[in-house]
Write a structure and sequence with these properties.
single chain, 184 residues, mainly alpha, 0% strand, elongated
Length: 184
């Protein structure tokens, strides 16, 4: 006959496990490293907000690509194409140069111009279009697709404002191209 005796399974024949605990004084020191102070009572470091750079949070936030695209399309419909940018691109100037000249003439800030430069650099680095609903885009460089879009449809001042303020990303543009849209 097998009897399930918890004391026997632990090798403590006839020993009450609670008796060991009862013999310990209540103020007994634990074995191992002892913390001098309670970690929950330590003062917390304050975050110096002035040290945080603007825009760094964008690296950690998931982009709302559809929201960006909706704003981009709305800006295209409500704004008129910037003729000087469209004409310059039609005459063979790069979109980056044409947009830069327009923004400088319009008095955009250095930060805004840097945002547009960062966007266009990202478009150039993105390389070739691998898939798109528009078969004409596949295999072409993404910068060529945006250049073609500016030639055909132009780019509105409101769209330039979205780029200048960092409200439209390369990822949103890439998603548009995959959907078969070149500029708007």
């Amino acid at each position: 006959m097998i009897i399930n005796d918890p004391n026997k399974s632990l090798g403590m024949k006839g020993l009450d496990p609670l008796s060991i605990l009862k013999k310990q004084p209540l103020d007994a020191q634990p074995k191992g490293p002892v913390l001098e102070k309670d970690p929950f009572q330590l003062p917390q470091e304050k975050l110096n907000v002035s040290e945080v750079k603007k825009g760094t949070a964008q690296l950690f936030l998931k982009e709302d690509l559809q929201g960006m695209q909706d704003e981009w399309h709305k800006a295209a419909k409500t704004g008129k194409p910037v003729a000087e940018v469209q004409n310059a691109v039609r005459e063979g100037q790069s979109p980056a140069t044409a947009i830069y000249k327009h923004m400088k003439a319009q008095g955009y800030s250095k930060d805004q111009m840097a945002n547009v430069a960062k966007f266009l650099e990202g478009v150039m680095k993105n390389g070739k279009v691998e898939s798109s609903r528009d078969g004409n885009f596949v295999g072409r460089n993404l910068i060529d697709v945006i250049s073609e879009g500016i030639k055909e449809k132009g780019i509105s001042s409101k769209q330039l404002d979205l780029l200048a303020n960092g409200d439209f990303s390369v990822n949103a543009y890439s998603a548009m191209v995959k959907d078969g849209q070149s500029i708007s």
